[in-house]
Amino acid sequence: MLDSKLLVIKIGSNVLTQENGLPDLERMEELVAQIQELTALGKKVVLVSSGAVAFGRQTIPLPEKLNPVFKKQIWASTGQIRLINQYQNFFEKHKQPVAQILVTKEDFRDRKHFLNMKNCVQALLSQGILPIINENDTVTITELMFTDNDELASLTAAMINADTMMLLTNVDGIFTGNPSDPDSELIEKVASKMPEVSKYISASKSSFGRGGMLTKYAMAKKSADLGIQVVIANGKRENVLGEFADKTLRCTWFEPQKAKHGAKKWLAHGEHYYVGEITINEGAKSSLTAEVIRSLLPIGIIKLEGEFSKGDILLIRDETGHKIGLGRAEYSSKVANERVGQKNQKALIHYDYLYIFDHD
Ligand SMILES: Nc1ncnc2c1ncn2[C@@H]1O[C@H](COP(=O)(O)OP(=O)(O)O)[C@@H](O)[C@H]1O
Ligand SMILES: N[C@@H](CCC(=O)OP(=O)(O)O)C(=O)O
């Protein structure tokens, strides 16, 4: 494990609930105390916490047949108050001010929104205030939803250039089979050149979780590729954060790759957020996938689809339709359409705002 200065800690619903579904306030208070110990060591922490729905469900009984969307909205909106109140009470005992940030997927799509959010988190951290982030569950329904808070944590870690992301759940990490099966072993390290470990992961979830281990794995892998070390560990474990700081923690650790710079990290998560699509010719493809990557000029573009503005994310495909990367538009689709295929035109995607997918 590597040293850490700025970390995103994600706490899953299961960590904060007991088996009977009631909030596990003792655990929550413990984790708050441990976060304070990390802060005392000079580390900066951003918390991504689930638990709103689980806390709401406990206090607001609803008829079985009520529309599930309404149920989620009612439990999330009532539960989030309880969740954040508990955090505030526990952190107050350590004289630690906290802030609540509720976000949607839209906030990560638009680069201006994204930068506003990033600046806000940084401003809070610079004043010694601990941000607690959750999804704004009352307005995010279906396609507006994050897969789960593991995705939100991973976007947050990329946004603030965190060096570490910890996903705290109710198992010690990724096992070679069902974690409750005594023959299953914990996978302690995941490196980029290792064979896929996703084959071990079943779609089963713990009782109150949303995404399951598969999204945790996918998000951990993506973050590690961007240069962020990732730890999947058991948030129910005594002194989990202390052991992390001492580098003695039993967990699954994802080795980070060479760090990518900020804008590329934003783009790397843009696969679900692109507004337009461009198809490029073979010459442009070899130039973009070469060792020394160049900007994408209109001469290499064959086709443009969708209406986009300057700053929007575009998906890049080759002539066979294969997705090869993402980039940020330097100008609108209106201007781009006038320049397609032409020589001596300004790049539609600048090198600094280009993210090429790993190709096999
Ligand atoms: N190979 C595996 N190793 C570890 N956990 C697994 C594996 N396959 C499935 N899981 C399940 O993933 C669950 C954790 O994911 P999830 O329910 O989303 O938790 P959280 O609420 O903390 O986000 C574990 O409780 C476990 O049941
Ligand atoms: N935003 C939701 C959390 C959804 C979620 O991703 O839960 P989990 O899989 O436990 O991290 C809530 O606060 O209830």
Automatic annotation (TrEMBL):
Pathway(s) served: Amino-acid biosynthesis; L-proline biosynthesis; L-glutamate 5-semialdehyde from L-glutamate: step 1/2
InterPro entries: AceGlu_kinase-like_sf (IPR036393), Asp/Glu/Uridylate_kinase (IPR001048), G5K_ProB (IPR041739), Glu/AcGlu_kinase (IPR001057), Glu_5kinase (IPR011529), Glu_5kinase/COase_Synthase (IPR005715), PUA (IPR002478), PUA-like_sf (IPR015947)
Subcellular location: Cytoplasm
Gene Ontology cellular-component annotations: cytosol
SMART domains the record matches: PUA
Domain PUA positions: 276-349
Keywords carried by this UniProt record: Amino-acid biosynthesis, ATP-binding, Cytoplasm, Kinase, Nucleotide-binding, Proline biosynthesis, Transferase
Enzyme class at the top of the EC tree: transferase
Binding-site positions, substrate: 50, 137, 149
EC number of the protein: 2.7.2.11
Main location: cytoplasm
Database matches in CDD domains: AAK_G5K_ProB (cd04242), PUA_G5K (cd21157)
Gene Ontology terms: biological process: L-proline biosynthetic process
Catalysed reactions, as listed in the record: L-glutamate + ATP = L-glutamyl 5-phosphate + ADP
Residues involved in ATP binding: 10
Single GO MF descriptor: ATP binding
PANTHER family, A to Z: GLUTAMATE 5-KINASE (PTHR43654), ISOPENTENYL PHOSPHATE KINASE (PTHR43654:SF1)
The protein's role, per its UniProt record: Catalyzes the transfer of a phosphate group to glutamate to form L-glutamate 5-phosphate.
Stated family: Belongs to the glutamate 5-kinase family.
Protein name (record): Glutamate 5-kinase
Origin species: Algoriphagus yeomjeoni
Lineage: Bacteria, Pseudomonadati, Bacteroidota, Cytophagia, Cytophagales
